[in-house]
């Protein structure tokens, strides 16, 4: 038996075609291997397929694959980030979950895991993933199958920045960890300026395109968690300020969480989680609508070393972030059932629309948390030094992006 035959057999026996709609025929395209290598790989595929459970092994392989082959912003979402993003979105049984750049399907798998842990058994989640990369779709299909899940990965590779025909998906939860600072995206969306709710995104950066696409796919009571480069929170260009203003003034933007630098395997860019909510008045939100307010959490100092050049959020930090957010919105189902939200100097602050407007809609969490009323920050103190350091890192990232854009323009000339 060849390795391609073994893969197709395992694919069919795992019922991947029925679970996610991807058939094994024509998917694999194996390279030409020596007879011995082909035989040994086929034996390995068969051995893994015969194992009683393979989800842990599959997760480990994904991590190694991402470390070795990922480049720039193209990598699979690590397990600790997936836990944080899904916890903040708080999916419930029966809801529709969409990942616009699903990669390996990790956010979908984590959504199912968290819902199953709440219900103690089977859930009725509708899992949907889209990705422009067909290889990523195949890996997502195997990931879902390895965890015994069903999902809709589309009819083929899909560019989520090019809205399909028909109405939006009306999803309860949208999760997306897209490539950062994509510069060559405009040609992928015809007549882009005709349908952006908060303004046409910069032509040389897709960050705000991803953010608005996530918001567009929400149901009337849906919420989204989007991971973006730090620069999206503070870019000084008028078009970026206008989009941030629109998100704040419409009450769509609920919270921003600053993450540690070097938390990604293949990108040194620091990043923020943007939490969106289509409606803060429905019962599922919580007791406190928090109208005209945005919660800022600065979790950047909370990482712990994991492997060389890579950091991870410890479980206690993930719990603290999600507890802070759930307390702020008055969600009694939140971890720990805290009594009341309070600003904490250096950690979190609930900021009014008026304060954000006065600050020119600069949405860096470090900027707002450092000014928390719960503590006095001396101009020359440690907090001010930290804030200036974060700002310098952001400027470094902007300079790097501009350099990449200039190189692209020179190559096209």
Tell me what you see in this structure.
This protein has 413 residues and is α/β, with parallel strands linked by helices. Helices cover 40% and strands 14% of the residues. It is built from 13 helices and 10 strands. The protein has helices at residues 3-13, 16-20, 35-50, 55-69, 79-89, 106-119, 134-146, 207-216, 238-249, 315-329, 353-358, 365-369, 382-412; strands at residues 96-99, 126-129, 171-176, 218-229, 253-258, 271-277, 293-298, 304-307, 310-312, 348-352. The strands form 2 sheets. An 8-stranded mixed sheet has the order 2-1-3-4-6-5-7-10, sandwiched between helices. α1 (3-13) runs parallel beside α3 (35-50), α5 (79-89) packs across α6 and α5 runs parallel beside α10 (315-329). The N and C termini lie far apart (51 Å).
Proportion of beta-strand residues: 5-15%
Supply the number of helical segments.
13
Largest sheet features: 8 strands, mixed
Task: Name the strands of the widest sheet in spatial order.
Answer: 2-1-3-4-6-5-7-10
Radius of gyration: 22 Å
Q: Helical residue percent? A: 25-40%
* Class from secondary-structure proportions: alpha/beta
Distance between the termini: 51 Å
The count of strands amounts to 10
Average pLDDT across residues?
79
H-E order = HHHHHEHEHEHEHEEEEEHEHHH
Given as residue ranges, the uncertain stretches (5+ residues, pLDDT < 50) are: 372-384
Broad shape: globular
